[in-house]
Amino acid sequence: xxALRVCVEGVGLWSPRLGSFAALQALLRGTAPxxxxxxxxxxxxxxxxxxxxxxxxxxxxxxxxxxxxxSGRDAATLAxxxxxxxxxxxxxxYMCRTLAQAPAELSPTRFHNSVHNAPAGYWTIATGCHxxxxxxxxxxxxxxxxxxxAVTLALSERRPVLLVCxxxxxxxxxxxxxxxxxxxxxxxxxxxxxxxxxxxxxxxxLAPLRAATPLPEPLATWSDANASxxxxxxLALLAAGHGGCALRAAATLELRIEMEDIA
Length: 263
Prior knowledge:
- The chain is of the alpha+beta class.
- The protein has one domain (4-260): Peroxisomal Thiolase, Chain A, domain 1, CATH 3.40.47.10.
- Helix content is 34%, strand content 22%.
- The protein contains nine helices and eight strands.
- It has an eight-stranded mixed beta sheet with strand order 3-2-4-5-1-6-8-7, sandwiched between helices.
- A hairpin with a 4-residue loop joins strand 7 (244-248) and strand 8.
- Helix 1 (21-28) packs across helix 9.
- The mean pLDDT is 92.
């Protein structure tokens, strides 16, 4: 396939060890960044919603808010793609236990937070966004699949698109299945054309799956702890400002990504 070219205008990142893209840049320069807050701040949400929202929503909203703030875009105008390998694992664990033991006690509020597009719903309501939104899941290829979806949308409709990918720590028996030992979320604000806020220009090509791109030493094992951390090769590329990487986008396909000069 011909290369798809898209510009990055904003980056969001949150994990228990890194609270922003700037923290990742500092880490890769050899500087220990300050630890983030115990929970994602998710300041975009109104206070009442922030108190009631589960961690999966707080994480997605936090990184989305970081990326949009960096870009200077109006969140209300942005189409968005929300990707997650496993959704809200704590809520899924709660629902499975409750349905097995006392189904009549299932909480309607917990139930509505279990759906895969719950973070997209909280985000679009909080920002007053009426643009299209999509929820994507592709197991360990969720970030790559979400990126392909977001880039395709940005180029086909000639509009900026917000991509968010996040997974929380596993809970109960699910943790043994998913392997998610810690939370990780990231976001990219993508644009079809360069502008004043452009940080990088990427050329993406879909190709047969090869070996994974190795991560820089400080991040070498991070992707083992969370499926959404599969985004780290691209985030490290953006932090470095040059080079290329490959991201799994399906069972047998990958996105090969090269950073280009901004024309």
